[in-house]
Specification:
With 296 residues, the protein is of the alpha/beta class. It has 14 helices and nine strands. The protein starts with a helix and ends with a helix.
């Protein structure tokens, strides 16, 4: 799953096309954005990131486009925004789905023509920067509801890349866990060198709703608190140890027909997601329409 999106990112990197990174929180969207920048002809220029959801509507516009002196209370000098500072480089707009409608209009203009003006300014400015946007929202649903401009969505969605959640790449869990083990052992002058097979099995079985970010935070915590050089099951947080229980397992006798196995698996997954068919489809790695077809 990861190699597919890596291939797309590598192909997109040399171009000037806008990339829209989609996926759950913690899947590494900013990491991908930085990788695309490093592989692009702009790699020697600036890479700037701004979290559109972390700033109030009154601040984000000035942050992106800049503000003229006196544009608002406290604007004592003319201030350049991120589009100005990212000229010739790459601007990463994280959580772009959170932008207010009036900022969406200005963003559409700069994507179409490279032109923009500062808050409170009348001078038209120009920028040549590569835009990579990211969101964990269903942007198409936001377009249908009127919360996100359709024309802006198509401008951003030139090359869409959906990053897979960690539960769809469980083979990567041992690799990532080992990487973070070594990273935080070195940072904290610890001698933790290995994860026991029992603990590793539990890490692989866990669903990781917070994805790679949650795994990283978990590994940092267990390394810091570890008393031995091999991490065991007792070193893991209780939430992970207790997450995989008998009630979460589906037992199917050998010799059960495949059709019956599929029926039970879909039924139990829907029970786990409390009837959320889209979520169930994601967990099973199939299209939502397939869930409906199987139910019918």
């Amino acid at each position: 799953a990861l190699r597919k999106v890596l291939d797309i990112a590598e192909q997109a990197a040399p171009s000037t096309a806008t990339v829209l990174l989609m996926g759950e929180s913690g899947t590494g969207k900013e990491l991908f954005a930085r990788a695309i920048h490093r592989l692009s002809p702009r790699s020697e220029e600036s890479f700037l990131a701004v979290n559109c959801g972390a700033l109030p509507d009154t601040v984000i516009e000035a942050e992106l486009f800049g503000a003229d002196k006196g544009a608002y209370t406290g604007a004592h000098t003319t201030r350049n925004g991120r589009f100005s500072r990212a000229h010739k480089g790459t601007l990463f707009l994280d959580e772009v789905g959170e932008l207010a409608s009036h900022v969406q209009v200005k963003l559409l203009r700069v994507l179409q023509s490279g032109e923009y003006d500062r808050v409170g300014g009348s001078e038209t400015l120009y920028t040549d920067c590569r835009v990579i946007a990211a969101t964990n929202l269903d942007v198409e649903a936001a377009v249908r509801s009127g919360d996100f401009r359709e024309d802006l969505f198509y401008r951003l969605n030139v090359i869409p890349i959906t990053l897979p959640p960690l539960r769809r790449r469980r083979d990567d869990v041992p690799l990532l866990a080992d990487y973070f083990l070594r990273l935080y052992s070195e940072k904290n002058q610890k001698s933790v060198v290995e994860i026991s097979s029992e603990a590793l099995e539990r890490l692989v079985d866990y669903g990781w709703p917070g994805n790679v970010r949650e795994l990283e935070n978990t590994m940092e915590r267990v390394v810091v608190l570890a008393k031995h050089n091999v991490l065991g099951l007792t070193d893991l947080p209780e939430s992970i140890v207790e997450a995989v229980t008998a009630s979460d397992m589906l037992s199917i006798p050998l010799g059960t027909p495949l059709e019956e196995i599929e029926r039970r698996l879909i039924r139990e997954t829907l029970r786990f997601t409390e009837g959320d068919k889209k979520r169930a489809a994601q967990l099973l790695g199939i299209a939502t329409r397939t869930i409906y077809r199987k139910l019918n």
